[in-house]
Amino acid sequence: MATSLTEEKVGRAGAKGRTSLLFEASLLSTAVVLGTNPVAVKYAVGFVAPLPFAAIRFVTAGLVLWAILRLFEPKGRLRRDDFLAMAGLGVVGVALNNVAFTYGVSMTSASSTALVVATAPLWGMLLGFVLGWEQPRIKGLVGVGLALVGVAVIVYRGLGADGTSLAGDLLVMAAAACWGSYSVLSLPLLRRYSPIAVAGYSMLFGGLILLLMASTGLLRMDWGSVSLGGWGAIAYSTLLVAAFGFTSWQRGVSRIGANRMLVYQYLVTLTGVISGVVLLGEGFGIDKFIGAAILLAGVYLARRQ
Hints:
The chain starts with a helix and ends with a helix. The longest helix is centred in the C-terminal third of the chain and has 53 residues, at 228-280. By secondary structure, the chain is mainly α. It is globular. The protein has 12 helices and no strands. α2 runs antiparallel to α3, α3 packs antiparallel against α7 and α6 packs antiparallel against α12.
């Protein structure tokens, strides 16, 4: 009897270890996928205008997640009381976020984009302060200030460099603010819905808004001019980044919390910088390195309060 109980405990421990390993692997792959997204988006908008691209991306990703939700979670329907909250989440986290992000990436470098997007947790934290969900502390405020100094170094030293612009960097920062807000605003909904439901419904709402905004551009597009590589970049950013990446990130936030997900945000940033330099041949001088170090130190300090 004692032997069978021991074997049962060992079996449960082994199953838990395998589950943890799979969860860790999913978060690591998510960080890599999200990190390479600026390169994919920058390549795709070379063939498709930013607004039509964003509309196609999120309507398609939303429909894919909705189909998966209906298949595996048939009871996970959106309640009437949560309709406005989910729609608002879609407006902030999908529509506004990706209009700013897609236009911003088209105007600046992928490596700068990856660095500026790393400020997303700070904007989420500031929103938490405003809503009264978090209490501001000196260490947190110092971290926010330090991170913004790092952004200023990156943006200022990049002005005039090939492939960068102040307007593009500011648009990316606006997208980071929307992404950070999305992570915070989704927390109440994640208590009532699964991560795939929150990601899927918010994408559908945001995607439909983008579709209305991009309707004229979609009709005027010369789709025959889009290369096979362009379609590949669109598919990558739609299915792997939007559908898989958003859902997996939400799952991570709901399971281990926003602070622990910060480790993976650093990996997203590192992957984004490396992919921009390697795949697009972007420069990464000592000035950008210093700005990145200041920014990431500020983010770490703010979220460790």
